[in-house]
From TrEMBL:
It comes from Balaenoptera acutorostrata. It comes from the Eukaryota. This is Protein preY, mitochondrial. SUPFAM superfamilies: Trm112p-like. One of its GO terms (cellular component) is mitochondrion. Signal peptide: none annotated. Residues 14-46 are annotated as: Disordered.
Length: 114
């Protein structure tokens, strides 16, 4: 799926004269085919960090609202719904079932029950 998105992005960028955003340039660069190293040649790589520039494009799949990156927990937070999406190896897991409820939302629910 990523190659399809990057392919469309590459095509769109070729028709523009403006300098594309850094995220788009990385996506285009990543779509270039490279020979894959054989298993014996691979070296250990540290986990990838999340690129905060992606926040320009990412929204909550449930509310379609912007997300906030929380570096201490490595999550994307939707403060309105009180949910947090995990980021694994620099890749946000935007599947709603993978999100966790944040502590703030639990406090609000407790207050409403009393």
């Amino acid at each position: 799926m990523q190659r399809g998105v990057c392919g469309r992005l590459t095509s769109a960028l070729r028709g523009t004269r403006a300098q594309p955003p850094a995220v788009a340039q990385r996506c285009v660069h990543a779509s270039v085919s490279r020979p894959s190293p054989d298993q014996s040649e691979r070296t250990w790589e540290p986990p990838r960090a999340f690129d905060p520039a992606l926040l320009e494009f990412l929204v909550c799949p449930l509310s379609k609202k912007p997300l906030r990156y929380e570096a201490s927990t490595n999550e994307l937070i939707n403060e309105g719904l009180g949910i947090a999406y995990p980021i694994i190896d620099g890749i946000p897991n935007m599947i709603p079932q993978a999100a966790r409820m944040t502590h703030q939302n639990k406090k609000q629910e407790e207050m409403e029950q009393h």
